Request: fold
Amino acid sequence: MNELVTLAGNNGKPVTTSKMIAEVFEKEHRHVLRGIDNLKDVPNFGHMFFETEEPDSYGRPQRTYQMNRDGFSLLAMGFTGAKALEWKLKYIEAFNLMEQKLNTPELQMANGLLAAKVLIEQKDKLIEAMKPKALFADAVSASYTSILVGEMAKLLKQNGVEIGQKRFFAWLRDNGYLIKRNGADRNMPTQRAMEQGLFEIKESNVQNPDGSVRITRTPKVTGKGQIYFVNKFVGK
Reply:
């Protein structure tokens, strides 16, 4: 009886076939196929029955069904008589024995490895989904320190935003955060950006070769500005 329940490509689970059932229950195979076809409207039919082909006695491909224990139980409900009842019980026992043989330490290890693989894939997807939040956290951690515009561009690029320093400067000018017109104040924060607290201006004294001193002004992105631009770009 055990050889009538085998392993198949259906996830390596125990199955029997319509041909095996026809032989054991002394029915014509076409009648068994017709009985299965009549069950096609049953919910989850595709999870219990799997259509395939097997060679007949002449080597010609013949339509055949593989089925798991649930499929067999559903089909066999229509078989009547004492002999049919005896074979139903034996088939169920055969399914149970096959499942017990599958429950080996080796199979448990394989299932454990498969489960670990699934968890790793899920973790990778979660990490990918969390990238924007991780970037936000980086900005928050740096929120007490102002950074150069170029450093802000690098931070964005490292976290998946395709932008470099020149393109970021251009974007800031085009969107009204930095002064666009040519002159001494080009690339300085606009009044609006300063009022929003997105930038600060660092002034430094530089001594010229002739001994004179000139003042340089450098725009820096504040902590508030870092969080603002992170949300601006990652939230797109």
In short: The longest strand covers residues 199-207.
